[in-house]
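User: Batch of two.

Assistant: Item 1 of 2:
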Amino acid sequence: MTLPFSGVSILDRAQSRLGSSEAETLQHVIERAQRAERLGYRRFWVAEHHGVPGIAGSVPAVLAAAVASRTATIRVGTGGIMLPNHQPLVVAEQAATLAALFDGRFDLGLGRSLGFTQAVRSALRTGKEEADRFGEDIAELLAFLGGTAPITARPQDAGRTPVFVLATGHGVDIAAQAGLAVVLGGPALFRDRNPALERYRSSFRPSPWWDRPHVTASLNVAVAGTTAEARQLLLPEARAMAVSRTRGSFPPLEAVGDQPLSAREEGYVEESLATAVHGTAADVGRQLAELQARTGADELLVSGGAFDLEAQARSDELLAELAAP
C-alpha cells in the first residue's frame, strides 16, 4: 500500500547512545539524513535541546546547515527553533541565510518550549514571560522575513521559507491567525475528534507562507519484521523519557536490558508506546492510513530514535517503501 500523505519526513533529535561520543552522535544524524535523501523522504529536521546530557543537538540552525551541506535535494529544517530562547530578528536572519545558501530548501519550524531544567532556563535568561510572548514574537519574525518591518532580515527572504509552528494548545490558534503550517503530535492524534485541528482549519488566514491550512502529524514510528522487534526499537527512547520525567536527567539511549524502572516509570513507558505506531510494514501502513483518515493530516513527520542504528536504518527503509508512490 502507499501511505496517504503528500510527504513523509524525519525529525532526528540527535539523541546520544551509550558507548558513542556526542561527536559521533552528530555524525550519525548527517548519515541518516543522507540515507533519508536516497530513500526519497521529503524533509529532514533537527531539534533544539540545551544542556541535556543525553541529547547532542543544541543548535538546530548550525546542525541544519551541516546536514544541508552534506545533502543535495532533501528539504532540511528545524523542528524546531524554540523562539523564547532567541531574538526574532536573529532567527529570521538565520532562516534567510540558510534558505539563500541551500537553494531555498530550508524549512523553519518554530516552538515555544522552555529549557529542560530551571538551571537551563536561567542560563538562557528565559521563563514564562518569554513563552507567553510567542505569538508576538512570531509576528515580529514574519515581518522581518517578509520585509514589512522597519528592518528586513538579510539576505532578503520575502516569504520564500516555509514556516511551521510546533503547536500545542494556543499555538494552534497562533498558527491559524498567522497563516502558518502546524505540526501536531501526542495523544490528540489518536482521538476520534480533534477540536484543535478543527479550530485551526476553520480560522486559518492565508499568508505569503501558506495559502491554505497545512497539517503535519508528528509521532514515533518503528517498522520491523515483527511487532515485538518494532516495539524493541521504541523501548530505549521510551525508557529514557520515563527516567527524564522522574529523575530530571535524560540518559543516553541504551540496549534494553535489566535496568530496573519504578512502577511510575513503567507507566510512562506504556504511555509513550501508546502514542507511537509500530509493527510490521503491513501493520504500520494500516495504522498510519487510519491516522491520516482521522486527522486529515497532509504530511507525516517521523520522530523517535533507536539505540540499534542498523535496525533504525532498516525501519527507515521499510517506511520509505510504504511511502513510495
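Item 2 of 2:
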Amino acid sequence: MSLVVSAGLATACTSETGGAASPAPGTSASTGTSQADPEVPKVTQPPLDAGKYAADTCGLLPQDLLASLKYTDAGEYHPAGNTPLTAAGPSCSWKIKGEGIGLQVILGTGNRDNGVGGLAGTYAAYRQKKLVRFLEPAPAVEGYPAVYAGVQDERSRGTCAMDVGIADDLSFSVQAQGYQGQDDSCAAAAQAAAGVVKTLKGA
C-alpha cells in the first residue's frame, strides 16, 4: 500500500491501488500512537529522512534493481495531492509492457503531515476496518519493521502490498501486482522495499 502503498482512520483511506491502502488525512490519530500501542512495531534503527525524494519518488529505486526485476521503462511519478489516490504522499509506478506486471512505491509524507503517518497509521486504519482490512506482520526490511496490509489479502493472486516504517511517523508502501502468486509478488515487493531503504540510507 505502501505503499502502497502502501498504505482512513476515522472516515476513509487516501490510497487504494489493488491491495494497497493508506490512511486518510484529517483524522484524530497522532504520531505518538506507535509509542502508546504495544502492537505497532517499533522503529529501532535510526529514522530515515525521505524529504529529498518527495519530488523524485522514482529515484528511490536504483536502475540496477529495477532491471533485475525486469522493469526497463522509466517510472511514472505522481505528486502528492488532494485526491484519494494522491493524499497519502508522492508515488512512482513501473510496468512491464505486455505482461500485466507492475510495481508501485508510495512515500507516506502526506500521511505524516496530516498526523496519521508511520505504521501507527496503518494499524489504526486496520482497527477501524476502513480500507485496511488485512494486516499481517512481515519480515523486517534492512532492520526496519514491515507489515503486509491492504483492502484484502491478495497475495495468493499475485499482488503483494507492504508498508515499511522508517520513522515513528513515516512509512512507505510497496505493491507488486500481476505476478504468478504469493512467492513471486512478495519477493518482488521485498526486494523493492530493501532497495528503497538502501537508497534512503545513502541519501
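The chain is about 20% helix and 30% strand.
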